[in-house]
Amino acid sequence: MRAIRITEFGGPEVLQLVDDQPEPEAVPGTEVLTVTHAGVNYADTHQAEDSYLAPQTLPLVPGAEAAGTLPGGRRVVALLAGGGYAEQALAPAPTTFDLPDAVDDGQALALVLQGTTAWHLLRTSAHLQEGESVVVHAAAGGVGTLAVQLAKRWGAGKVIAVASSEEKRKLALDLGADVAIDGAEEGLKERLEEANGGKVDVILEMVGGATTDQSLAALAPFGRLVVFGMASRQNPSPVNVGELMGRSRAVVGFWLVHAMKNPQRHLAAPMQELLHLTAAGDLRPVVGGTYALSDAAEAHRDLRARRSVGKLLLDPSR
pLDDT tens digit string along 89-100? Predict the structure, then answer.
């Protein structure tokens, strides 16, 4: 079957289209999914260069999510152990979710990994309280576009979107953000505090480096900085525990893999809520583009260069 195979680690150039990938065979607890669309995530770019939280083994077919049909015709979206960039993939039963007719593939793929991440960032990690201010970095991205909407829906007092271009900031405002500011590192702390009229309560951060440092400096007493990525590939300064205590601030890490270890407890309810909101028209997943499977490397380049918005998809039929 056609698939994207990685045989050496590196940048987007290591994503190679092949037509001789063996078809997956179901094992207990899985079914073979005929993939109609696969999702592309920023974590995939780390996986390709083996800089991800979990070490990778070659050769590999990347892809942690796919939408399609199971034997018998059930239309589903699934979180995968890998292998999504292909015509077929193994869908584990505990992380496979039936799709309502009103939710298309792109919307479903925006929800299953990035939507559940946004849900947990706000609910589980930040424990968002009504009236609190929320900063969403990369607000035009897959997680960010949903986090902006969910934060407003769940009673945030002010949602401050951070994005790298005027077009992306406009999108965030259209999705409900109260303010949108430039994400450039220089002066970021001051812009965050100016946008909120003081220090902020909750910050969702996935850039790393100086962006994390300046975000922490803008955090109010009892504020929570939730870190869920490091797109810059730069580590922030070490966190001083004494300063956290002295200012009553918290730094929290989040990785969806831990929710996947107990999907019945940590994924079923969020997915049900997100699918219901989307089907009802109350949540707007943003699909930023659909690429041919043969153009997977281009999708990675666009992600790394911050040229994309929302969710990116691969079409294995092309």
Answer: 999 999 999 999
Structure-block tokens of residue 51: 């800089």
**How far is 99 from 94, CA to CA, in rounded Å?**
15
Contact 60, 44 (CB under 8 A): no
Q: What is residue 239's DSSP assignment?
A: P
Summarised one tens digit per residue, pLDDT across range 277-311 is 999 999 999 999 999 999 999 999 999 998 999 99
Residue 128: count of CB within 10 angstroms of its CB: 21
Q: Which DSSP string corresponds to 93-120? A: GGGEEE--TTS-HHHHHIIIIIIHHHHH
Contacts of 238 (CB under 8 A, 6+ apart): none
Phi, psi of 199 (to 5 degrees): -70, 160
Task: Enumerate domains of the chain plus CATH numbers.
Answer: 3-113+258-315 (3.90.180.10), 129-254 (3.40.50.720)
